[in-house]
Structures are given as structure tokens and as C-alpha cells.
Specification:
Layout: E1 9-10, H1 13-20, E2 36-44, E3 52-60, E4 67-76, E5 87-93, E6 97-103, H2 108-119, E7 125-126, E8 138-141, E9 153-156, E10 160-164, E11 170-174, E12 193-200, E13 206-215
Length: 221
């Protein structure tokens, strides 16, 4: 399970994201720099123990109203081949040394574990506590699967990022998060599975909502 080191990271994650988020098509902040605060999230374990995987929720107060964004990140000890365009930045970790930080939607290790989470083969971990499952994260899958492990095609939209497998299956990462109206997240009609999680609202209340949808192609006629 993930080990959380109580140490420094320079620059911090929020400092890196302040420069990176405005370059994303799904970012809807104001004309100035983002005003970011950590609002929640969870982690997944790399089975080989080499890549840190975090699904981070950040709240931005720079626009007309606060917006919560889902920002999956991976932390690596060396650059990821072919992923220069997905690099958020580098930072110095007080224990582990230099880390290369990527948009996890482009990192095959993170994508495989996200698919495993939807399928029920991976257990979400607490964001800031070592060796502790995150009980606020839920998942569902219609049928028995399996869910593809590789989603090589990645496309950013104005509200989400779509990861597409060779068979047409899509993992839709919802970048702009919205609390479930009744407090109990429900997948959109037609979705074959989903992941939901919790984060802090601007007023301090803990809210829950959808984070990822699994969409499967229609059966061949």
C-alpha cells in the first residue's frame, strides 16, 4: 500500500498546478492566475511500487465562482518515455529526490490501475495516510467485465478527458466536479461503470460526486 512521506516538495503540487492548469482546455478560471486550494482526493497503488498515483481534487477561486477540478497525477523517479506533452513539472522530494510529475491520464501505469479500480481489482487508498483504504471512494461495474487495461488514445475536452481503448471502451475522467444532488452519486444513463469520491466544498462541507465514467461501445448489429 502507498507510503506517505511527511516531508517537503519543492515546488509544491499547487505551485506546479498554478502554471499548468491554465494550459488545459477544461480549465475555466479567471483571467489571472489560479487561486488553488487542496480539496480532497485519493491514491492508487502501483503493483510494482515504482510510480506514485494520486487523484487530486483542487479548488480554484479565481473565476466568477469556485470550481473543483479532478487532477490525476503520477510521480516518477525518471522521465516517462514519449510523455513530454503530459509533464506537469519536476519537483524535489525531501526523501525521494527529484520527481517527474505527469498528468496521469497519459501514464499507462495509472490508467491500468484506474481500470482495475472500476473493475474492483484495485483498492483506493487514503490521500494523506499510509496503508489506509479510502472508504469514501466507491465504484460500480455493470456485468462482470473485464475492463481493458490499456487506453492509448487520450483526448481533452471542455469538461472531461476521454481515454479510449482499442475496442472502443472509454474511461471518461470528469475534470470539473459537481456534488451529487442527493448526496448519493449515480452514474449517468448508459454508463457501464463509474468511480465516485468525496471532496471539501467551499463552505467546508464534505460532498460526494462522480469522478470517472466507464462507457462501452454498442454491440455490433
Amino acid at each position: 500500500m502507498a507510503v506517505i512521506h511527511r516531508t517537503t516538495l519543492e515546488p509544491t503540487k499547487l505551485e506546479l498546478l498554478t502554471g499548468w492548469l491554465p494550459t488545459r482546455p477544461w480549465y475555466h478560471g479567471g483571467p489571472g492566475a489560479p487561486e488553488l486550494a487542496k480539496a480532497g482526493g485519493f491514491r492508487l497503488d502501483d503493483p510494482k511500487g515504482e510510480v506514485g498515483i494520486e487523484f487530486m481534487v483542487v479548488r480554484d477561486g479565481s473565476g466568477e465562482g469556485p470550481v473543483s477540478y479532478l487532477v490525476p497525477l503520477t510521480y516518477r523517479a525518471a522521465p516517462l518515455d514519449g510523455a513530454d506533452a503530459a509533464l506537469v513539472g519536476t519537483a524535489e522530494h525531501g526523501v525521494l529526490g527529484r520527481r517527474w510529475i505527469y498528468d496521469a491520464c497519459h501514464d499507462p501505469v495509472a490508467v491500468a490501475e484506474l481500470a482495475a479500480l472500476v473493475e474492483g481489482r484495485a483498492e483506493p487508498q487514503a490521500q494523506s495516510v499510509s496503508h489506509t483504504p479510502d472508504r469514501e471512494v466507491s465504484r460500480a461495474l455493470a456485468g462482470e467485465g473485464p475492463v481493458p487495461a490499456e487506453f492509448p488514445a487520450v483526448e481533452d475536452g471542455e469538461e472531461h478527458t476521454e481515454l479510449t481503448a482499442a475496442d472502443g471502451t472509454v474511461l471518461r475522467v470528469l475534470r470539473t466536479l459537481h456534488p451529487a444532488q442527493d448526496g448519493a452519486p449515480q452514474a449517468e444513463p448508459g454508463a457501464a461503470g463509474h468511480v465516485a469520491g468525496a471532496w471539501d466544498a467551499p463552505d467546508g462541507a464534505r460532498v460526494q460526486g462522480l469522478m470517472v465514467l466507464l462507457l462501452t461501445p454498442p454491440p455490433a448489429p
